[in-house]
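We give the entry.
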Amino acid sequence: MQAFFVSTGLVALAEMGDKTQLLSLLLAAKFRRPWPIVLGILVATLANHALAGALGAWITAYVGPGVMRWILGGSFLVMAAWMLVPDKLDEDDAPSSATHLGVFATTVVAFFLAEMGDKTQVATVMLAARFDAWVAVVAGTTLGMMLANAPVVWFGDRLVRRVPIRLVHLVSAGIFVVLGVAALLGAG
């Protein structure tokens, strides 16, 4: 259960102000159809994080515990620094105005691609390697993504303006530092 709760909380915090959250806002403003957007986010996140979690599980099978401790410790510390860099939505990530895929499919494709190499995808790889609990990590990171993105789809701009994104990023960075130091010190 620890893997699930840590994954949920960490990704929900890390996602605040992230480019995929900005994409959620953009999709909601463009299409104004929340259910297909939220379902598209869920499908894209499950697919993306399942692959990322599988990569994390695969890494643990081929890397010894001593090396893995240093990789994870360093990776978590790098993630802490990365959390302090604000995200912007690239034009490549934004859905085109002339789409023939429909709201759901457009959301799945745009969200899956935007999540490639994103903080939360990298965090999913690391968490799956750290906890050796692929299903719990993927379930947790997916729930964290939904907790951060679904309200944006429904409440949009009003919600984003009230959340102190800089503070959320600082708290997320702090959590990654704690996880990184714990991994380097060999804490379970």
User: Anything to note?
Assistant: The chain has a mean pLDDT of 83.
